[in-house]
Specification:
single chain; 158 residues; alpha/beta; Rossmann fold; 5-stranded parallel beta sheet; 5 helices
Length: 158
């Protein structure tokens, strides 16, 4: 039992994840950042504090853009934890998470080399240069989001 507890403390974490029907969320245990149900679909994480928008964005990513939404975070603490442990191909980030700017979570995404799209009401001029990324302003369309994800995921020239 002690070995399991040590392993769990070092490598496992619990995150809110959307159920397959996209309408509700459940806790999922991640082991070393990898869920047990691996798929071939590209994976996204969502940082959005408004539950209705998070659900709509999850549906849009899954049903229209073909992403497996690995996790959603609604507050900065969850966002930092998810950014640290979740395996994903892209993140869609609302900058204002319950009144706290998501910059620490963006720092973790950058550290891990995970591209991100800012899906926010903030103006581009209000975003510090080091956090600039493809931006979609709320409300946005599936086409706008898809274009921003393509821009974020495009290889960068060295």
């Amino acid at each position: 039992m002690k070995q399991y507890e040590k392993f769990h403390d070092e490598f496992a974490s619990d995150v809110w994840s959307p159920r397959e029907n996209g309408s509700t969320f459940e806790f999922r245990r991640l082991i070393a950042g990898y869920p047990m149900n691996m798929t071939a679909s590209p994976r996204a994480i969502v940082f959005e504090d408004h539950a209705g928008l998070a659900s709509a964005l999850t549906d849009l990513l899954a049903e229209r853009l073909g992403y497996d939404v690995a996790a959603c975070a609604g507050c900065i603490e969850e966002a930092i934890r998810v950014a640290h442990v979740e395996r994903c191909d892209v993140a869609v980030v609302d900058l204002d998470l319950q009144g706290v700017m998501a910059y620490p979570a963006l720092d973790e995404l950058k550290r891990r080399g995970i591209p991100y799209v800012l899906a926010t009401g903030s103006m581009a001029v209000d975003i510090p240069g080091r956090y600039r990324a493809p931006l979609v302003c709320k409300p946005y369309s599936a086409h706008e989001l898809a274009d921003a994800i393509r821009q974020a995921s495009a290889p960068r020239a060295m």
